[in-house]
């Protein structure tokens, strides 16, 4: 199996008269936490949405674990092996935590619609296994005690953890986290960093979009900086932090 989990090149996307992305690429190795940062309007979210099937790119080549994939629909990208969370939490509010994770796990089920309708023995067996796996994942992210609570009753930080558990339930090749620290207090950010470290240490691969540059620089193995839809810099956190173009884009004459 290749050590390159995600290999994307030549991604461009235009919205009317706005060139949102121009020839952007990214390469992520297995077990890395890879950061994607940039000033507001840099194209981070557009790139993220293209990778995960929310937007159709104008150009680009997309390869996941050595196999080409087409980012044409979210569910197809999930089947290919990319799971994502959203900046604005998207949970099933009236479902329990364990039910939310089970929904994620159904991407990998085999019984199908007829099994669900007729409640076949194989369907019942698979559902029991899914429920057990969902509870294991809730334990893994630190909220196992909340398995039977409705999602809407969970704290903000715990809802973020629930989203990550649901993403993990799809057995992804790549977990794409969209602003996971947004709205968190300092204590919640520390716990989030510990969880992302834990996931990485289990040889999983993470793409992280995050406005909290301190969090990114403390977590990531490599970082891509976008500005005005173009790649500004790619490198280690140390290389990125001392790059004059990055300093200018964030602090200087970049107009942000």
Write the layout of secondary structure elements.
Layout: E1 4-15, E2 18-29, E3 33-37, H1 44-51, E4 59-64, E5 67-68, H2 74-80, E6 82-84, H3 97-105, H4 112-118, H5 121-140, H6 156-168, E7 174-178, H7 186-201, E8 206-209, H8 213-219, E9 222-227, E10 230-235, H9 237-241, H10 244-251
Helix pairs in contact: 3-5, 3-6, 5-6
Structure description:
InterPro entries: AAA+_ATPase, ABC_AA/LPS_Transport, ABC_transporter-like_ATP-bd, ABC_transporter-like_CS, BCA_ABC_TP_C, P-loop_NTPase. One of its GO terms (molecular function) is ATP binding. Pfam families: ABC_tran, BCA_ABC_TP_C. Helix 7 links the parallel strand 7 and strand 8. Helix 3 packs across helix 5 and helix 3 packs parallel to helix 6. Strands 6-7-8-3-9-10 form a 6-stranded mixed β-sheet, with helices on both faces. It has a 4-stranded antiparallel β-sheet with strand order 2-1-4-5, covered by helices on one side. 41% of the residues are buried. It is built from 10 helices and 10 strands. With 256 residues, the protein is α/β, with parallel strands linked by helices. The chain has 2 domains: 166 residues, P-loop containing nucleotide triphosphate hydrolases (Rossmann fold); 79 residues, no CATH class.
């Amino acid at each position: 199996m290749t050590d390159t989990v995600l290999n994307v090149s030549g991604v461009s996307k235009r919205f009317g008269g706005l060139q949102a992305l121009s020839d952007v690429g990214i390469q992520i190795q297995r077990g890395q936490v890879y950061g994607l940062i940039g000033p507001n309007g840099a194209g981070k979210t557009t790139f993220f949405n293209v990778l995960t099937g929310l937007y159709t790119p104008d150009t680009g080549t997309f390869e996941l674990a050595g196999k080409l994939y087409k980012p044409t629909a979210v569910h197809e990208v999930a089947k290919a092996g990319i799971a994502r969370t959203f900046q604005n939490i998207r949970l099933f509010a009236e479902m329990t935590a364990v039910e939310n994770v089970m929904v994620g796990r159904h991407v990998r089920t085999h019984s199908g619609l007829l099994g669900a309708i007729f409640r076949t023995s194989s369907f019942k067996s698979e559902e029991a296994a899914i429920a057990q796996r969902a509870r294991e994942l809730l334990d893994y992210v630190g909220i196992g005690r909340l398995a039977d609570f409705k999602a809407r009753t969970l704290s903000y930080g715990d809802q973020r953890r629930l989203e990550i558990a649901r993403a993990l339930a799809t057995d992804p090749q790549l977990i794409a986290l969209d602003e996971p620290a947004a709205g968190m207090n300092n204590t919640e950010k520390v716990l989030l960093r510990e969880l992302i470290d834990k996931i990485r240490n289990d040889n999983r691969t993470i793409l992280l979009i995050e406005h909290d540059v301190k969090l990114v620089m403390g977590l990531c193995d490599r970082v891509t900086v976008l500005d005005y839809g173009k790649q500004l810099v790619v490198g280690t956190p140390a290389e990125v932090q001392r790059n004059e173009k990055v300093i200018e884009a964030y602090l200087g004459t970049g107009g942000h």
